[in-house]
Amino acid sequence: MTMWVFGYGSLLWNPGFSPAEQALATLPDYHRSFCMSSIHHRGTVEKPGLVLALDELSGAACHGLALSVRDGEEDEVLAYLRERELVSSAYLEKVLEVQLRDGRRVEAVTYVIDPHHDQYCGGMELEKQAAIIAHAVGGRGPNPEYLFNTAAHLHELGIQDAELDWLTERVRELTA
């Protein structure tokens, strides 16, 4: 059985593996949100940044990319993803059904936020998110770069995300 991974943030532009197939996909009952305080990749403990996570919300839908793992690479890819995504245990690894644009439904490894983790910060006003993102820097670089790369790749894929578009414009203003 083919292993799939659902990408909605940095996995869109930096999956860390070479997928056998990529397909636009929708994950029901979750939405993409800057609801995770980043103390490793895009911020520090002293000055946290924000990164995207999937926040559960009944009736919502997150549009992203399903990436299939090449036969025989499943263990290697899963180990890589766990090292990358589970660095602080704020994400939960789940296997969730996503619908591919062509109508297929597949089970995909998906990283969602643990709403009980102390890095969870869901419901924050967009203006406050922009202020944090504009000035944070972590081990993988500046927080604005993460936002801009994700927004650009969503646009390339034809995926609309009004919140990310607003944040992109606001962070550009704040960092100009």
UniProtKB/TrEMBL annotation:
<dbReference type="GO" id="GO:0005737">
    <property type="term" value="C:cytoplasm"/>
</dbReference>
<dbReference type="InterPro" id="IPR006840">
    <property type="entry name" value="ChaC"/>
</dbReference>
<dbReference type="InterPro" id="IPR036568">
    <property type="entry name" value="GGCT-like_sf"/>
</dbReference>
<dbReference type="GO" id="GO:0006751">
    <property type="term" value="P:glutathione catabolic process"/>
</dbReference>
<keyword id="KW-0456">Lyase</keyword>
<dbReference type="GO" id="GO:0061928">
    <property type="term" value="F:glutathione specific gamma-glutamylcyclotransferase activity"/>
</dbReference>
<protein>
    <recommendedName>
        <fullName>glutathione-specific gamma-glutamylcyclotransferase</fullName>
        <ecNumber>4.3.2.7</ecNumber>
    </recommendedName>
</protein>
<dbReference type="Pfam" id="PF04752">
    <property type="entry name" value="ChaC"/>
</dbReference>
<dbReference type="InterPro" id="IPR013024">
    <property type="entry name" value="GGCT-like"/>
</dbReference>
